[in-house]
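Trying the structure run again after the queue cleared.
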Amino acid sequence: MTLVSKSRIIGVLLIAILVMSLEPKPSQANVLHARATSSTDQIIVKYRNPGVKAVIATDTTQQTVEMAALSVMAGVRLTYYREMSGASHVLKLPRPMLESEVRRITNALMKLPDVEYAEPDSIMKATYVPNDPDWTNQWNYHGTFGINLAPALDIGDGSGGPVVAIIDSGVLLNHRDLTNCCVAGYDFVTDSFRANDGDGRDADPTDPGDWVTAADQMAHPGICTLDNVRDSEWHGTHVAGIVGANTNNNIDVAGVSHGSKLLPVRVLGRCGGTISDIADGMRWAAGLNVPGVTNNQNPARVLNLSLGGAGSCGSTFQDAINAVRNAGAVVVVAAGNDAMDASGFTPANCDGVITVAATDQSGDRSIWSTKQASNFGSTVEISAPGTGIWSTLNNGTTTANQDTTMAYDGTSMAAPQVAGTAALVRTLRPQLTPDQVLEVLQDTVTSFPVGSTCDTSNCGSGIVNAGNAASDLYINRDYGGGGSFGSRRHPYNTLKAANDTVWYGAKLKMDPGEYNETLTLSKRMTLTSNGGIVVIGK
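Done. Tokens:
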């Protein structure tokens, strides 16, 4: 940041004061409209010059000057709120505003030459639909159009594999079926009202409850809508149980990758959570630096985000996704429950994520009511069961009371089944890239049934099949002789030179090498310089 003269500072401040004095007060009609429409009271700004980041975060004089200059351009008073990850900053608006209003402000700021991007710090919500607890078994693991979990668990349960981050509303760490499941997490909810635990960010990722009263909603118009008035949902605890609940312990439910350690990262509270908090939580989960937070000692290589909201994928989300993928993390996201094309919902529409739609017991796209059904479209990579999914819960309507289990509906319940399967895949083949993990998952799906409301154009490649995915990566061969590879239908291939590679499913004739017979592969294989083979995984 270029240091400015005292006269320029005074000039900028005088103009800013003029702008603030002209700023209209919100009418009651506007406030009521904001309650029923997507709104926020924060924006995210990133500067092109990295040096600006450190200056405005620490130098209060320069911070005041910069906020005054930005306020002039925005036409409203902006105040500095906090530094966030990704060299970005969170600024406060004078009041909650409709997304369309905020977008006009951020578009104006984007015209400044030193601003790389500016965008609304939109509110994301948990993507599920609760229902009555009338299901008595986990059909999604063993039903005809379930995920075929049992054969996968015969091969491995995730033990020794990647940490799975539950980026959600927090987890009840003492739930009877989640004991010893989690490594140390973090609470990234900044706003004290939203956090509902007496403070903002802290090292305790426990879900304190996210109930909202009518009085809460009236006191926070534009942030909490009438739809938010409800009891606590324990959403993150339900998601955590799907991925990693204790299994074979005669208590409650089974988890997909129950040997994996879970990393609870709290980013949702009362009335949802902000993109800035979620992006910080994602980076921290993957082991990346977040200002003011001690580094994560247990980086996750699978991130589950059962959350989202309407809108395009902004730079803040995309930058965070790119960063965690570069760190090696697979990012799994719920498609949403609005019966609409997932391309209109973020982060489901971001590049580099595995977007998951929900299916029912018949292999159709899940429909839960006249207004709520799984999102769909070409943005979806894969599907998983999302109707009547049993998992860990609590019966407290405000704060936690008694541990229990319950069936929930939603793409929020479908996504963690894919995340759990991704963890099983990475346990067997830890060197796979995020794109290769997706390829394995898509190549081993259960196909949608004939006549289904799902097909490969609107629900991804099929229904995730954990048994197939694990079996395709499992090697049952003694390299001293004997054994066999699984059979798939692919063209004949020959390895002749060092570092030649054949993908799994191909028929292989190894020449030169001690194995000169023709094999049908279930894995990718590479010829080494001495004629041996190295199984890399797909």
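The CA atoms of residues 80 and 300 lie 31 Å apart. Worth checking whether this holds up in the mutant runs.
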